[in-house]
Amino acid sequence: MARYTGSVCRLCRRETMKLYLKGDRCYSDKCAVERRNYPPGQHGQRRGKFSDYGLQLREKQKIKRMYGLVEKQFKSYFKEADRQKGVTGTNFLVILERRLDNSVYRLGFANSRSQARQLVRHNHFMVNGRKVNIPSFLLRPGDVVSVREGSRQLGSINDALEAMPRRGVPAWLELDKTKYEGVFKAIPTREEMNLPVQEQLVVEFYSK
């Protein structure tokens, strides 16, 4: 599946906020948003106000880039959330948070979602004792995500675990660093998902 391969720092600047796409760099003074907090391009500093549609589009793009999804996959998740009972926007965010690559990142086994996606694809993780190499695999309450025995000496995983305390582990996940495993304890609530997004704008965007 085709994915964006350009500078991810440009994506953060386009949304004028940190999307934490580049691991440690996002926490340092080298972060592009810290240095130039305006959209990239010749006219980045002179961009005016957005229309209602523009605001909805920017919010959609922000969430899509945050989770590293392409448009087709992003839209299919929204349709699935819309079919479920409850608040569509919250359902949508829950589906994104249930992805295996996102949980690997949230548990601290990777410094970014893109790195987590790569690690999952390279067969470094198991779910409930079985190898899973599909980043979009959706976890259920009680599922145990663990690093495979032969991958526990991998430098990128151990470096990420060392840096994990500054991010913290969300309430719906539980990490056991000594065992290199984590548990997806429960479906998160909107209050627990402390995300700087307005998912209702995405609902409005797709409701046109």
What features would you describe in this structure?
With 208 residues, the chain is of the alpha+beta class. Among the domains are: 1-48, Ribosomal Protein S4 Delta 41, Chain A, domain 1 (Orthogonal Bundle), CATH 1.10.1050; 98-184, Structural Genomics Hypothetical 15.5 Kd Protein In mrcA-pckA Intergenic Region, Chain A. The chain is built from 9 helices and 5 strands. The chain has helices at residues 8-15, 32-35, 52-67, 71-83, 88-98, 100-107, 113-121, 155-163, 199-206; strands at 125-127, 130-131, 143-147, 173-176, 181-184. A 5-stranded antiparallel β-sheet has the order 2-1-3-5-4, covered by helices on one side. Helix 3 (52-67) packs across helix 9. The longest helix has 16 residues, at 52-67.
Determine the CATH topology of the domain at 98-184: Structural Genomics Hypothetical 15.5 Kd Protein In mrcA-pckA Intergenic Region, Chain A
The best one-word shape is globular
Unreliable segments (pLDDT under 50, ≥5 consecutive)?
none
Which CATH architecture of the domain at 98-184 is right?
Roll
> Which value, in Å, is the CA radius of gyration?
17 Å
Question: Structural class given helices, strands, pairing?
Answer: alpha+beta
Largest sheet: 5 strands, antiparallel
Element order: H for helix, E for strand = HHHHHHHEEEHEEH
Could you state the CATH homologous superfamily of the domain at 98-184?
RNA-binding S4 domain
Range of strand content: 5-15%
Look at the structure and give the CATH class of the domain at 98-184.
Alpha Beta
- What is the average of the pLDDT values? 85
Number of discrete helical segments: 9
Helix content: 40-55%
Sheet with the most strands: spatial strand order? 2-1-3-5-4
The CA-CA distance between the termini, in Å, is 27 Å
